[in-house]
Write a structure and sequence with these properties.
mainly beta
């Protein structure tokens, strides 16, 4: 699997005759690239991360009370159901006395406490969000969404989750508190790597009337980044192509998402009428429709029409997983013509401009209450839209696959593209914008004109 080049650093190379030094340097560089956090770098969202902020708001007799806020600064990657799970390792013998807006999945061994029992005594607690509808005395702001966190680019207000925790048997001042260690984040599966907690300037809060400022007694941050290579051995989506100028449909690659150890069911199977067939499993194991690509999601790009000053493309997203529907789905496409988008039908659209002047990437997502839910595999398991794009005379062409995307992401994961040599190509006798019949008529007119002049 190829790794994207993520940066260039000027460096002094050893002499050409020192081959052993060259080999050693190359080996060390490859290891550093493979095992460093840099593999989590996303070129289409270079600053995307999840920042977990701990704000100590009060000291207690044996510890502190903190508000923990999880901010998703990823433009197009969200945390979907069954939600996030946050874990860490206590630096000393801390316990969690109580929580608001979240809960530990296990209490652990609290046998040494005689009277009041802590909420959790585990050295490595695992915390999950509460479900919607819990009593108000168990809620705080931005909690209780079942662990679902929106992407920042799609809905900044929904890209946050929070809970309150009361910690005991810890320090009771800035100098005696030991920061938790070894943070882990499941969102809901693997893929996130979290760095160490770092003390930062205390958060400033505004009172409801916005006339007075208060601040946290102590604040530390934890930054988590996502790597698709850690999340899954295979891609989770694939791309297929077609065009008006070529009858060939370019399908997804065979076994694009891996074919080993996967259960599938045929689209006309009688098993689909079995009660509970669409019920998700605890481990989120998919039940796929049997296809040659074996991907849960297929994105199809069709070059539909060619006008004088515009051209039109159609996008269709199909779900092949019978146990999963996708809420708040996102689709990211990189294409040089996206700086000339005139109109998007049926999807919401937002340009992504991570590099300032380069506007070749856009995020598409469903319209609220219309098609922001991609249903499970079946008759309703698809959403589609069309794009109208203006032609740029200096770059536009249908030759050499220019009209097809460079990269496609679904829900933040890069999809497997068809091989470049398989892209639909123009017929040899048909240059762009000039059908054979038009060329034939034009040639006949020119010959007739020449004959008239000679006569």
């Amino acid at each position: 699997m190829e790794l994207n080049q993520i940066g260039r650093e000027s460096q002094r190379y050893p002499a050409a005759d020192d081959c052993s030094s060259c080999s050693l340097l190359l080996f060390i560089s490859v290891l550093a690239l493979m095992f460093s956090p840099a593999v989590a770098y996303d070129p289409l969202d270079p600053t995307g991360n999840i920042t977990i902020k701990w704000d100590v708001i009060s000291w207690t007799a044996d510890g502190y009370v903190a508000v923990v806020t999880m901010n998703n600064f990823q433009m197009y990657r969200h945390i979907m159901s069954p939600g996030w799970t946050l874990g860490w390792t206590w630096a000393k013998k801390e316990v969690i006395w109580s929580m608001v807006g979240a809960q530990a999945t296990e209490q652990g061994d609290c046998s040494k406490f005689k009277a009041n029992l802590p909420h959790c005594c585990k050295k490595t607690p695992a915390i999950v969000d509460l479900l919607p509808g819990v009593p108000y005395n168990q809620q705080i702001a931005n909690c209780c969404k079942g662990g679902v966190v929106g992407s920042y680019g799609q809905d900044p207000a929904a890209a946050v989750s929070a809970f309150q925790v009361s910690v005991g048997q810890s320090g009771t001042s800035n100098k005696t508190v030991k920061l938790p260690q070894n943070f882990t984040l499941l969102g809901p599966g693997l893929g996130y790597t979290c760095g160490p907690a770092k003390v930062v300037p205390s958060t400033i809060f505004l009172t409801p009337d916005k006339r007075r400022k208060t601040q946290a007694l102590m604040t530390w941050n934890v930054t988590c980044t996502y790597s698709q290579f850690l999340a899954s051995k295979h891609p989770t989506c694939c791309v297929s192509f077609s065009s008006f100028y070529n009858d060939t449909i370019i399908p997804c690659r065979s076994c694009a998402c891996g074919c080993e150890n996967k259960n599938c069911i045929k689209s006309d199977s009688n098993l689909l009428s079995t009660p509970g067939i669409n019920t998700p499993k605890k481990d989120n194991a998919p039940l796929l429709q049997c296809t040659q690509h074996m991907c849960p999601i297929r994105v199809h790009w069709h070059v539909k029409l060619n006008y004088k000053e515009y051209w039109r493309a159609k996008i269709a997203i199909t779900n092949f997983n019978y146990r999963m529907n996708y809420t708040l789905w996102t689709l990211v496409i990189q294409h040089p013509s996206l700086d000339n988008v005139t109109e998007v039908f049926s999807f919401d659209y937002k340009p992504l401009v991570p590099y300032g002047s380069i506007n070749d990437t856009g995020m598409f997502y469903g319209m609220k209450y219309y098609n922001d839910l991609l249903m499970e595999a079946g008759a309703y398991g698809n959403v589609q839209s069309e794009l109208l794009l203006r032609k740029d005379a200096s770059t536009f062409t249908f030759k050499k696959g220019w009209a097809f995307p460079r990269k496609v992401y679904f829900n933040g994961d890069e999809c497997m593209m068809p091989p470049p040599d398989a892209y639909p190509h123009l017929p040899n006798s048909s240059p762009v914008g000039a059908p054979p019949l038009i060329l034939h008529n034009l040639a006949a007119s020119v010959i007739a004109l020449m004959l008239m002049v000679m006569w």
